[in-house]
Amino acid sequence: MASSTPEASNLPGMGASVNPDGGITFRVWAPTCDQVYVAGNFTNPQWNEGKIALAREEKNSEYWSIFVKEAKVGDHYKFVISRKDQPDLWKLDPYCRQVTGRINLNDNSPRENECVIINPKLFQWDKKKFDMPLWNELIIYEMHLGTFIDNGDIARRFLDAISKLDYLVELGINASEI
Question: 86, 104, 91: which is closest to 30 by C-alpha?
Answer without folding.
Answer: 91
